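Data card: per-record layout.
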Amino acid sequence: MNDAASVSSGPPSYPSSLSARSDIDLPSYSPPTLSLRRPRTAPQPRPPVEHKYELLSGNGTAWATLKVQSRSRSSQQMPTFAEGDKVNGSLVLDLKKNESIKSIHLVVCHLYVPLYLSFLVDLDSFRLNTVLWERSNPHEKLHGQNEWPFSLDIPKEITVDETDAQTHAGPFRLPQTFLEKNVQASVQYDLVVNMKRTGFASSNSRIQTMIAYVPLTRPDPPSFLRRLAYQENSPLLGPEADPEGWQLLPPCSVNGTLFSNRQVNVNCQLYLAKPLCYTRGTSVPCFMSVTCMDEQALDLVATSSAIHVRLRRYVTAFNKDAALYNHSNLTGMKAAAPLGNRRYSEAATAKWTDAVEDLANGVWWPSREGGEVIEGTRRLNGEIKLDQSLKPTCRIGNFRIKYMVVLLPPTAVGFARPSGLTTTPLLEREIEIATIFAPGPRALIYTPNSRNSQPRTSGGDNYLIPPVASFVS
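The structure for this 473-residue chain is written out next.
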């Protein structure tokens, strides 16, 4: 990822480059049909959508209206802001009588609630407070129509209090809104208008709404040959033809019994496309080489149905009160779970607690690269499709979201592994999930029979913002 610093204890930090995507100049060679293509015009941004939030009087008329402009698709959705956006809007008061209001404040705040509610760390990590109006003397009152426009900048980075030796103050890039009912950790942003009244018996008034925030992060450009393949809509080249475009993971070996009568050994080499940062809504290109001296075993395990490569997400929080929580029901929960199932695990010597979920399976098909069949070897192309609603990689204080590509042992009828080893991962490799497409030609999806060869975009924007349903489920 651009300008990302390497952090050994967690995901690398986000890139600082937020410039709009620009196509990379490639050599002048092109097939005859390329000249027939109509040049792609730059997408036009959508006009902002206005959201309204009202306080009603006893007769049902609105006496206070908060108006907010955002990049949401509909006024019925949560106001959505991307990194670099301003929070623009206004507060309108329609007062039929004199009101003894002392001050009106607009607040944008960020709340973080970790896995265990007894450990409230980083609550109100930042708070933007703007005075919309303040009376000039004790006798001043508000009456009639009043409107106060506002424009606030959301900070790109913040620092947090050093609450434990396991954390540092930052700075950290603001994470995306994260609210999932099955994960007991959340990142929330609120927009609040506080109207303070005078007098002992007077009550204050408040308008409050949740807003969605999306950081802008993008991968570095892929290899030259991969960019060329995307531009020409041609198959990706494998590790032999494009060594700069692939990352070889540590080779792994699998022992098993074939049809209960002979021992076999299967060796796997998994490659991931570089750089190891991918935009949600695209895919993780994969390549695998499987070797075995037993051709029958090779035919069984080197198939799409037998190979299991998954995208696994870890939502991690540091819990200093972990010793007070009874984890006896969590023992032995670290084994791989079925796709879509969540589980919780705790390291033996640390207080970091993970909510783990497998989000996607890789799809595989035979590779045609080279054209020759090598005895004892099968080569496969693969992809892990990345849903548009994935939350990007983040780390802030005691909260992290990270993603791993996990290779599990192959499963096939007639191929058996020792008990207890069927769900233990053969290897894991951390990757990053970003929100903006990489510079250059748009990445393609190559899964056979895929309806969309290009990832879908959100309207005319150059980065993907999921619908509000993916922010709150």
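Known properties of this structure: Residues 224-232 form the longest helix (9 residues). The two ends are 29 Å apart (CA to CA).

See the next section for split statistics.
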